[in-house]
């Protein structure tokens, strides 16, 4: 298993980043690649999960081991694949997902792309009471934390954010509903993504 990749961040895409390690470029798929947007051409460390199947070999990356551990637990749930697990992890800190599971909040879980009622129930059945390592103070009432606003041309940043949300599985009908609220903000790409996810999960 590749525990982490440490090197120079070369590229950010809507679904992945590329990290150069001694001349070898690692393509690493992330829940929200834009959390690294200020680290381009700088040295970073990403904790990875090496996903191997007959038809797919990929590296998935996370800023902390805790984020990675939640992704791996979600992968063990029947009906959840890598794309679905990434979409859930992109919603915010692991504690917020754990809160939904512990509270048996099926309605919130079904707001994630690809998660229906059956899968939401399966997530709760498989993981409730098994995520104590993620529980922090105030976990059951915590709200997702947004990064501080950063001045950037709104149109480009907003459209990049929407591209990232589409990559996670959100459809145009859902994105159209939250666009007016986002257009009122002046945020960086990551800020738009987090704000959009917060709005999508509240609907």
UniProtKB/TrEMBL annotation:
Residue ranges of the region described as Domain III: 153-203
One Pfam family recorded for the sequence: RuvA_N
Localization in the cell: Cytoplasm
Membrane-spanning segments: none
Superkingdom of the source species: Bacteria
Entry GO MF terms: DNA helicase activity; hydrolase activity
Swiss-Prot/TrEMBL keywords: Cytoplasm, DNA damage, DNA recombination, DNA repair, DNA-binding, Hydrolase
Principal place of residence: cytoplasm
Domain Helix-hairpin-helix DNA-binding motif class: 72-91, 107-126
Subunit field text: Homotetramer. Forms an RuvA(8)-RuvB(12)-Holliday junction (HJ) complex. HJ DNA is sandwiched between 2 RuvA tetramers; dsDNA enters through RuvA and exits via RuvB. An RuvB hexamer assembles on each DNA strand where it exits the tetramer. Each RuvB hexamer is contacted by two RuvA subunits (via domain III) on 2 adjacent RuvB subunits; this complex drives branch migration. In the full resolvosome a probable DNA-RuvA(4)-RuvB(12)-RuvC(2) complex forms which resolves the HJ.
Protein purpose: The RuvA-RuvB-RuvC complex processes Holliday junction (HJ) DNA during genetic recombination and DNA repair, while the RuvA-RuvB complex plays an important role in the rescue of blocked DNA replication forks via replication fork reversal (RFR). RuvA specifically binds to HJ cruciform DNA, conferring on it an open structure. The RuvB hexamer acts as an ATP-dependent pump, pulling dsDNA into and through the RuvAB complex. HJ branch migration allows RuvC to scan DNA until it finds its consensus sequence, where it cleaves and resolves the cruciform DNA.
Family affiliation: Belongs to the RuvA family.
HAMAP family, A to Z: DNA_HJ_migration_RuvA
Domain notes: Has three domains with a flexible linker between the domains II and III and assumes an 'L' shape. Domain III is highly mobile and contacts RuvB.
Entry protein name: Holliday junction branch migration complex subunit RuvA
Organism whose genome encodes this protein: Alkalicoccobacillus plakortidis
Species classification: Bacteria, Bacillati, Bacillota, Bacilli, Bacillales
């Amino acid at each position: 298993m590749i525990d982490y990749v440490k090197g120079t961040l070369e590229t950010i895409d809507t679904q992945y980043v590329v990290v150069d390690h001694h001349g070898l470029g690692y393509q690493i798929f992330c829940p929200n690649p834009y959390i690294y947007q200020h680290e381009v051409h700088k040295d970073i460390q990403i904790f990875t999960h090496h996903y191997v199947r007959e038809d797919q070999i990929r590296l998935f990356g996370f800023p902390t081991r805790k984020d990675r551990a939640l992704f791996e637990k979600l992968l063990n749930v029947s009906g959840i694949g890598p794309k679905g697990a990434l979409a859930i992890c992109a919603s915010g800190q692991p504690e917020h997902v754990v809160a939904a599971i512990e509270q048996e909040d099926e309605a919130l879980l079904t707001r994630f792309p690809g998660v229906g009622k059956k899968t939401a129930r399966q997530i709760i059945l498989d993981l409730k009471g098994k995520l104590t390592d993620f529980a922090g103070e105030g976990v059951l009432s915590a709200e997702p934390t947004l990064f501080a606003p950063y001045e950037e041309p709104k149109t480009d940043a907003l459209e990049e954010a929407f591209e990232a949300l589409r990559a996670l599985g959100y459809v145009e009908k859902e994105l159209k509903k939250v666009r007016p609220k986002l257009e009122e903000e002046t945020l960086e790409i990551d800020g738009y993504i987090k704000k959009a996810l917060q709005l999508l999960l509240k609907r």
